[in-house]
Amino acid sequence: MENSEQQTIKKNNKWTIIGLFTIFAAPLFIAYGGWYLGWFDNVGSSNHGDLIQPVVTLDKSGLLLQQKTMEEKDLNHHWWIIYVSDDKNCALRCQANVYLINQSRTAQAKELVRIEKLIVSKNQPFTSRAQTFINQHFGSNVFATLSANSSLEAGKIYLMDPLGNIFMSYPEVADEQQAVKAGRGIILDIKKLLKISQIG
């Protein structure tokens, strides 16, 4: 009889140990799967742009203002919407994207003072005619070029925080009709960032 009781106790102990192991090992297994196997990629993600990982810091961005490397003091504690084009004449596609970032900023209402726009020409500076047209139709803008070793791509819109971290990107649009649709996502992302951020 005593033997039978001892066997039952051993069995119970065995299941207790297995249960405890499962309780402690399961979170590790889930964390491993989530991190290395990408189980949770995009789960619960509410942003509309693509997160850049790791972020591109200002000193690695290759952004040039008047052929000088853009520095943190040039940011003036603002958030920045950056459009990179490969069209120095800024024809219709380029204009649609300038319109898009302009509307994304304007839609922030009283918060728009926290945001600046940067229009970047990938290969050559914008022509003076293109700069004049953009200024007349879309308000004042800051124009820049990129150094040869920049990792930023033409045909992309980027968000940069007041510390100079470029952390999110969006594909460019083909025309103003697409700009209206794409703009909703950018507007919502910026609203959320400004709401939760204590900087800029």
List the helices and strands and how they pair.
Layout: H1 2-36, E1 50-57, H2 58-61, E2 63-65, E3 68-69, E4 79-85, H3 92-106, E5 115-121, H4 128-138, E6 142-146, E7 156-160, E8 165-171, H5 176-196
Parallel strand pairs: 4-5, 5-6
Antiparallel strand pairs: 1-8, 2-3, 2-6, 4-7, 7-8
Q: Keyphrases for this structure?
A:
22% strand, alpha+beta, 200 residues, 5 helices, elongated
Describe it.
Strand 4, helix 3 (92-106) and strand 5 (115-121) form a beta-alpha-beta unit. This protein has helices at residues 2-36, 58-61, 92-106, 128-138, 176-196; strands at 50-57, 63-65, 68-69, 79-85, 115-121, 142-146, 156-160, 165-171. It is of the alpha+beta class and 200 residues long. Helix 3 runs parallel beside helix 5. The mean pLDDT is 85. It has 5 helices and 8 strands. Strands 1-8-7-4-5-6-2-3 form an 8-stranded mixed β-sheet. It has 2 domains: 1-45; 50-196, Glutaredoxin.
Short précis:
With 200 residues, this protein is α+β, with helices and mostly antiparallel strands. It has helices spanning 2-36, 58-61, 92-106, 128-138, 176-196; strands at residues 50-57, 63-65, 68-69, 79-85, 115-121, 142-146, 156-160, 165-171. Strands 1-8-7-4-5-6-2-3 form an 8-stranded mixed beta sheet.
